[in-house]
Amino acid sequence: MNDDRLHAPATLRNRDAILAVLCQVLPASGLVLEVASGSGEHVVHFAAALPGLTFQPSDPDPQARSSVAAWAKVEGLANLRPPLDIDAAAPDWPLAAADAVLCINMIHIAPWSAAVGLVRGAGAILPPGAPLYLYGPFRRHGAHTAPSNAAFDESLRQRDPAWGVRDLEEVAALASATGFSPPAVTTMPANNLSVVFRRN
What we know:
Elements: H1 9-25, E1 30-35, H2 41-49, E2 53-56, H3 62-75, E3 100-104, H4 112-125, E4 131-136, E5 138-139, H5 147-159, E6 166-167, H6 168-177, E7 184-188, E8 192-198
Parallel strand pairs: 1-2, 1-3, 3-4, 5-6
Antiparallel strand pairs: 4-8, 7-8
Pfam family, one: DUF938
InterPro entries: DUF938, SAM-dependent_MTases_sf
Protein name: DUF938 domain-containing protein
């Protein structure tokens, strides 16, 4: 066992449901950037299942990048690049272009500036028609979709007042102002959503 490999228990529960949506959303070939790759378990799973695509993981946390690299080494996937140091909120990303951007379970465990930076950064590197895929819990029309999400939101805000479950309409307005289409929304297990914006 490589000590650098981190494990996120939720990944095993949601990765196949996410993959099913990605199979309908992602292009047949090209470069897919994952922002906030965390442990790396998602991107390794997707890269193994979708060999026609090249995946670029990223995370601002050195420990997370070490975990991504360790998982990649074990799996030996030719279509998985070494992880980049990308802070979603940073004004410039070290990647000039991508054919899709993924971000799973990040915008609620980060300040709003990270969501703003994510949409801005994706808008800068995606061509017209390309998807920005978000996954996680969202409020809809200002209300939580389940009591468990309300409790989760409260626990997040106790950890950091800048964190919290985001309002889907607010994220959609941000995306629209940055040059993205209205979202295509898929209801996912455990009161989460898949949200797909496309570059205009």
